[in-house]
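Hey, does this match?
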Amino acid sequence: MNQTHTAPARALGDFDRHGFTVLSGAITSTERRDALRAAQHLLASDLTSGRDRGADGKDGFRGVVALDDAFLRLIANPAVLEPVTDLLGTNLHLLSSHLIALPAIPEGAARSIRTPQRPGWHRDMFGVADDLGPGNVPRLAIKAALYLTDPGPRAGITMFLPGSHQRTDPVTVPSGSIDPPGAVTPDLGPQDAVLFENRTWHAGGLNTGNGPRIALMLQYGYRWLAPVDDPAPALLARDDLSDIERQLLGARDRHRDGSLAKGAGGKALLRWQQDRTPLPAR
């Protein structure tokens, strides 16, 4: 965490208005290359633990920070954590690290999802709206989407409906269409990231390119929310983690002797944020 980034106030304002924003140059070319190599290795393997396969050849893994250090090194990225903590506060941990590979399907070829019958638009955090009511869902978590393969116009980058985080009714797609009116695809460079919150309606784009679209989704949320990924106690047992990495991986509220220490597991990000220069009002 030695590197310092300042999240532009405009990006935070865009996030408040639209429910998502683009962070330019959020990862280095080396980080992206290493993560892509790790992703390709996992996807070519026979590993089934955490495997997430779906319709139309979709492949991926949940909990990938426990599967390769190339992913683990990305969770405490200051370019991402600065806007995330400005928007959510510091009492956070990592809810999910999700590797998603969408195969290329030629334009006009048969699909079983992202069709007029199954347009695929959704909000994250399944069940929250059912439990709390659609109009009562707060901002609980933010995802950072990092695209490890070319994010060009045919790559199937995630689409978003601007302002949909403020809606209390479901998004509707016109008959015969696959996207709601006003849906957009962000214009991304290879080292950019997209931040979006749990209430923002989104869907995978149509990958009609020359190869799979491989993305890493890192979701940060409040420490009192249960993680989506399976527990990985071996990670916290490592002695080469920073305090911030330990918090994000689920450090408990304990003293060294195991006794209770209220809030201790969430102090690392708070100390880090207090050392930062405040951003101007947006």
In short: The chain has a mean pLDDT of 93.
